[in-house]
């Protein structure tokens, strides 16, 4: 069995209390297959289980060179043990040890206390952020699938503390009727900041339809689709990390300070500005969104902003899904703004705007469609 030290430190970094695991007696290397809903496993479930374990074993072999490179880079950072293990609740709330590459220092709880891990923690190496954002830190969970603790697709395994906090969510406990997954449907379709109640609804809907959706053949297709989506995200995050954190910062030394958020370019996404006191009082000319990150955005327009005025705005994004044109709109307000470099033609003014979403739903629209945080 994989030996991992300092197992609970990363749990504490998310603001939860340390909880000693009481399931070490049953922590065996390989769990025999069992039915998702309890009882004797039928041939249908046997096929799904074998597909998951077989694919996980194959992926472990294929990913071994990548995992060794990641392990070496973590070791060179001298931030502590290479691997992290922590207790999670699986099917029927049975606790098991989940594995991942360590991305946080062992003593991170002493540095941030009960605070949530955020992008502005500058003592966390940029390579660790890359692992977290690309999900490469979860590659060791393939071992959990081979052992039978998890499957490729299913609700993400939660800590006991998270389970206690979410008991008030309707039907939240349904997730424990199936094995947890390396990637959940809610993780596939929504950003990580999406409220738990919305994610629980998506996971439960998938659980209700599991008998129709889950067959050995469809399981293979879903696994391959998931691998393709995650591979695309790894390539994108890898290019951003290499171009910004490696080439610009370390080789060319063009960055004088660490960039905590990466910009997403949108070109000419339309924006409509108005004064927060009166939504009917629009700015004379419409604006366009050039790029955006989690904290601020860059916009261009032809009318200057009035100092001291409180502005709100709509911003829209257009895309196609299943051959149909779609539009999503987010409503935000200015927190602060400043004039920026010479504007791009044909616009006369360019501003950097610190913004704030007007509601949790608007923040969800920004995360999913403007910041492109979800996999699908």
Mean pLDDT: 76
* Low-confidence runs: 1-28, 112-116
The strand count comes to 11
Major sheet attributes: 6 strands, antiparallel, barrel
Q: Would you tell me the structural class of the helices and strands?
A: alpha+beta
Shape from CA axes?
globular
Range of strand content = 15-25%
Number of domains: 2
- Whole-angstrom Rg: 23 Å
Tally the helices: what do you get?
11
* Sequence of secondary-structure elements: HHEEHHHEHEHHHHEEEEEEEH
What is the terminal-to-terminal distance? Answer: 35 Å
Helix content: 25-40%
- Please give the order of strands in the largest beta sheet: 5-7-8-11-10-9
Notes on the structure:
- The chain is an alpha+beta fold and 376 residues long.
- It folds into two domains: 9-249, no CATH class; 264-370, Beta Barrel (Thrombin, subunit H).
- The chain is built from eleven helices and eleven strands.
- A six-stranded antiparallel barrel has the order 5-7-8-11-10-9. The chain has a two-stranded antiparallel ribbon with strand order 1-2.
- Helix 6 links the parallel strand 3 (151-153) and strand 4 (181-183).
- It is globular, with a radius of gyration of 23 Å.
- The two termini are 35 Å apart.
């Amino acid at each position: 069995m994989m030996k991992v030290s300092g197992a609970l430190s990363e749990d504490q970094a998310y603001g939860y209390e340390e909880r000693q695991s009481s399931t070490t007696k049953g922590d065996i290397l390989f769990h025999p297959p069992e039915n998702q809903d309890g009882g004797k496993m039928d041939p249908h479930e046997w096929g799904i289980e074998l597909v998951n374990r077989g694919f996980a074993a194959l992926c472990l072999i294929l990913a071994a060179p990548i995992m060794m490179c990641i392990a070496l880079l973590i070791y060179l950072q001298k931030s502590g043990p290479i691997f992290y293990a922590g207790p999670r609740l699986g099917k029927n709330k049975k606790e098991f040890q989940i594995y991942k590459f360590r991305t946080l220092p062992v003593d991170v709880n002493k540095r941030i206390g009960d605070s949530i891990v955020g992008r502005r923690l500058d003592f966390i190496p940029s390579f660790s952020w890359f692992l977290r954002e690309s999900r490469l830190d979860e590659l060791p969970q393939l071992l959990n699938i081979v052992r039978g603790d998890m499957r490729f697709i299913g609700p993400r395994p939660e800590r006991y503390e998270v389970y206690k906090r979410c008991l008030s969510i309707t039907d939240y406990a349904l997730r424990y009727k199936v094995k947890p997954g390396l990637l959940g449907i809610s993780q596939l379709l929504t950003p990580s900041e999406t409220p738990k109640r919305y994610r629980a609804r998506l996971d439960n809907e998938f659980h209700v339809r599991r008998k129709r959706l889950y067959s050995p053949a469809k399981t293979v297709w879903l696994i391959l689709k998931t691998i393709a989506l995650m591979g695309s995200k790894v390539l994108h995050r890898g290019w951003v990390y290499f171009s910004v954190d490696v080439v610009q910062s370390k080789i060319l030394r063009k960055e004088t300070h660490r960039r905590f958020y990466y910009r997403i370019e949108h070109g000419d996404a339309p924006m409509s500005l108005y004064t927060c006191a009166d939504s009917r009082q629009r700015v004379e000319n419409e604006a366009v969104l050039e790029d955006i990150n989690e904290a601020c955005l860059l916009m261009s327009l032809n009318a200057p902003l009035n100092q001291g005025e409180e502005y709100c705005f709509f911003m829209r994004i257009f895309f196609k899904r299943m051959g149909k044109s779609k539009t999503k709109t987010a409503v935000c307000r200015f927190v602060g703004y400043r004039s920026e470099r010479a504007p791009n033609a044909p616009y006369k003014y360019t501003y950097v705007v610190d913004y704030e979403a007007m509601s949790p739903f608007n923040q969800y629209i920004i995360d999913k469609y403007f910041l492109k945080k979800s996999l699908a």
